[in-house]
Amino acid sequence: MFELIVNHFLGNVPVWIFPFMAGAGFAVFILSGIAEHIEPIRIYGLIARPISIIVMVLGVFLYGGAGVIAVQQQALLEAQQKVALAEQASKDATDKLQQALDNNEHLVKGRGYGVSQVIIKDKTKIDVDCKRLNDDAWEDYNRAVKNSSSKILGPKK
Amino acid sequence: MKKLILISLLLLTACAGNKPPVIPNWPTVPTDLQLPANDLKPLDINQRKLSDLIENSNENYTQYYILKEKYEGWQNWYINQQKIWQGLQ
Fold first, then answer.
1. Contact between B30 and A101 (Cβ < 8 Å)
2. What is the ipTM for the molecules in this complex?
3. d(Cα A73, Cα A136) in Å, to the nearest integer?
4. Which of A26, A90, A123, B35 is the right S-S partner for B27, CB 3.0 to 4.6 Å?
């Protein structure tokens, strides 16, 4: 209920209404107190007194609510600006990282290609002493290459 | 009258105290870091020369360094995003 008042009512009513309500309520409260001592209008004073208290209390409460909503709107604006800046900083950091990753991958692949070219060039010299790997060496090598993890953490394929 | 002033002060606080409801978007991750990691390449049964072994090792080392870059990329991404997020608190 409070939220409804704050968000939908207070935002659409001029703020001066609320101190005016409180002031008017207070004035009527005083006048009704005087009226209670004047016999011909005593009955009006008795009726007006509780109503004036309600109007005064409501006016003070709504004035407080209007002040809070103004503060909250300001805080909301500041928070939105802060979040917008953070999101931009996040995007910039991600873009910069993407660029660095692309660049580094290009360098790594380039180096791998360069080494590959050297191996091709030296192929004859390399294979002079070892024309064929024995079965155990081949098997051991492939055993080392094989991944034995459970794949629990890996992406689903 | 004193009670009236006290009640008025309490009423003036209204519904103060709530934080403004602003939720930042979840940060995006570089697309390279979202790709699945390739397995190391075993030596083909028909490639039994020493040069084949070295070539295969070269490919696997290249693969390793690419994955190392991605691993460090994740660390870098996390640290940067954490700093930005903590700045919002």
1. yes
2. 0.75
3. 74
4. A90
Contacts of A83 in chain B (CB under 8 A): 22, 24, 88
Residues within 8 A of A (CB atoms), B 35-54 only: 36-37, 39-43, 45, 48-54
What span, in angstroms and rounded, lies between the C-alpha atoms of A11 and B21? 17
Tokens of A99: 């660029």
**pLDDT tens digits along A4-35:** 665 666 667 788 898 999 999 999 999 999 99
d(CA B89, CA B69): 30
Among A99, A138, A148, A156, most B C-beta atoms within 10 A, so best to mutate, is A138
pLDDT tens digits along B25-74: 889 999 989 999 889 999 999 888 999 999 999 999 999 999 999 999 99
Q: pTM to 2 decimals?
A: 0.68
Residue of chain A with shortest Cα separation from B84: A86
Of A61, A89, A141, the CB nearest to B84: A89
Element (H, E) at A88: helix A42-121
CB contact under 8 A, B30 and A97: yes
In 3D, which of A72, A83, A147, A74 has the Cα closest to residue B14?
A: A72
Which of B32, B36, B62 lies closest to A98 in CB terms? B32
Give domain limits for chain B.
22-88
Gyration radius from chain A CA atoms: 41
